Amino acid sequence: MIYLDNQATTRCDPRVVAAMLPWFTDAFGNPHSAEHAMGQHAAEAVESARAHLAALLGVEPRELVFTSGATEANNLAIQGVARHALRTGDPRRRLVTLATEHPCVLETVRDLGSDGFEPVVLPVHPDGRLDPERLRAALVVPTLLVSIMAVNNETGLIQDLARLAPIVRAGGALLHSDLAQAAGKMPLDLRALDLDLASVSGHKFYGPKGVGALFVRRRPRVRLRPLFSGGGQERGLRSGTLPTPLVVGLGEAARLALLEQGGEAARVRVLRDRLLHRLRALVPGLQLNGDLDDRIPGNLNLRFPGCRALDVIAGAPELCVSTGSACSAADLAPSHVLSAMGLDVDQVNRSLRLAVGRFTSAAEVDEAAFCLARAAGRPRALPLDPAKGSPLKAIS
Predict the structure, then answer these.
(1) pTM of the model
(2) Predicted pLDDT of residue 62
(3) What would the CATH number be for the domain defined by 14-256?
(4) What is the pLDDT at residue 326?
(5) Residues forming the active site
(6) How far apart are CA 53 and CA 76, in angstroms?
(7) Does pLDDT of 154 surpass 70?
(8) Please, is 277 exposed, middle or buried when counting C-beta atoms within 10 Å of its C-beta (0-12, 13-18, 19+)?
(9) Please, where in the chain does CATH 3.40.640.10 lie?
């Protein structure tokens, strides 16, 4: 199998697995059992992981609350701010987000409409970017929170948060960002971006599934109400026993990302461009959804001529690729992201997301291009590579 779905999830790095293993067996203490050595040892490991993640994001370790992933972190951020506003009598009820956000953000904002809040979902340009003036106009009404994802999970588009954050600040609202597709893949400094809240997920950057974190700004302090009650762990914001092995894995994934993301991004970009180049040569009429420059290095969102993306996937069973968000896999409706960018139903149905990653090889990229072209019914008659039997080496 050739895996090109690294925005849905990534392989857990073997070095991350090695770091986690002892915490399942030998060092199995509860990190909240401060009375004995094994609990203290686990607590130290948790805090070390917190420090590694903080270094990756450019924040203080105590500003990070561990969660089960970005979906929980997004819910805690948005619902937590809303519930605190209700409790304290804050009159602001407007919640602003984008039409291209992840479903867990869109649905959370919409669900709060039944609690008296005003969900505002802003449209985007055909390239997926938010018009700053639309944001400014939305903030004329006193707004509680704005949620804008840093990198889109389908198109890989990087929103210009550095440009948008001052508008939010001037409007007096809090700014939350879903960083699930950004963390570990591009440099991040949440302090410089002036974010109040931000969500990350370990399995999106070669860590384990089931763990993530929410950044909650301390100065000026952001106030939240927890989603559920319990023992008061994680500064009282997220009760429950922390899964030490997963937290350790998240920390190790963050440590490796900080060390290697520059070189890795360059390598992944080269492979991504190679894949696009070969596909364009093999499939005339292939089109790119979005701008190639302003997206994370590994992403491609491609529109195939004359065939549905699902048929291409079915015709290439040796490839792991997808049409979009894994969280919407049960929903056969057209991608809301591509629809918001102005694509019609036919264009959306012909679109496929590809994501090169840390463990993708050049040989896999070459083979994948041929498999996709074959599945699309448009392989060209090119000289065969004797080693692989695939007509790819003739393409420079």
Answers:
(1) 0.93
(2) 97
(3) 3.40.640.10
(4) 55
(5) 327
(6) 19
(7) yes
(8) middle
(9) 14-256
